[in-house]
Write a structure and sequence with these properties.
Mean pLDDT: 83
Low-confidence stretches: none
Shape: globular
Largest sheet: none
Order of helices and strands: HHHHHHH
Number of strands: 0
Distance between the termini: 52 Å
Structural class: mainly alpha
Length: about 230
């Protein structure tokens, strides 16, 4: 594997190399689209045929539609982070399907870091939007409006660990799916180098996209929940 070989040469972990490579691809894609849009009539007419710009614009519009539905009227404020997470995960997943390369999302350090970033982000949003009232989200039914309001401390003890558990579920779900997918492709490439691996690589493309979609969708849902008025 290329990144593993480079690790012995430059002394940088293969995971960091893979993550930087995915980030550079993401930056390059964004720069390409920006250049095309800034050109003569570039912002008015799409490119002819299938191009990087057309594909990225379709994906962004699709994500924006979901963001509007799940994050409310202020979705534009938070959408750049959601979009960045989606495309980074997608590019990292796809890199792992290229023979000789490894995707950063096949390592727990990357998926855990992404999950922590998402948790910190939506928690910060909740605190900024609602202040100290944000804690009420973890205290069960509305205080003073339920006969079980005395259970609020118990809800708090249960809900905070459940909220933190989202970090684990986000990280493990992405890691497990991508590690399994990349392993299957690698095994078949080592046994039969042409036809069968091509089939699994096609399925791998679907898995790579779906996992990026699920990660971004859950991020939107968590942000939407953080934006809801605490009861």
């Amino acid at each position: 594997m290329i990144f593993h070989q480079l690790e012995h040469v430059i002394g940088v972990s293969w995971v960091i190399q893979a993550a930087i490579f995915a980030a550079l691809l993401l930056f390059g894609g964004g720069l390409l689209v920006r250049t095309r849009v800034a050109g003569s009539r570039g912002g008015l007419l799409p490119d002819e045929g299938v191009s990087v710009r057309n594909v990225l614009e379709v994906l962004v519009e699709w994500l924006a539609g979901m963001a509007r539905d799940r994050m409310g009227s202020n979705w534009r404020r938070y959408f750049p982070v959601v979009g960045t997470v989606f495309f980074f995960v997608l590019f990292a997943n796809l890199i792992g399907l290229v023979p000789g390369f490894e995707g950063a999302t096949g390592d727990i350090n990357t998926t855990a870091a992404l999950a922590i970033v998402v948790w910190v982000f939506y928690t910060a949003i909740g605190i900024i939007e609602h202040g100290s009232q944000y804690i009420l989200k973890f205290m069960g039914p509305p205080l003073g409006k339920s006969h079980v309001h005395w259970l609020a401390p118990f809800f708090l003890i249960l809900e905070i660990p459940l909220d933190l558990a989202r970090i684990l579920t986000l990280a493990v779900r992405l890691l497990a799916n991508m590690f399994a997918d990349h392993t299957v492709v690698a095994v078949w490439l080592s046994i039969i180098p042409i036809a069968v691996p091509a089939l699994f690589m096609g399925l791998g493309l679907i898995v790579a996209f779906l996992q990026a979609f699920v990660f971004a969708l859950l991020t939107m849902i968590y942000i939407g929940l953080a934006l809801e008025e605490p009861h």
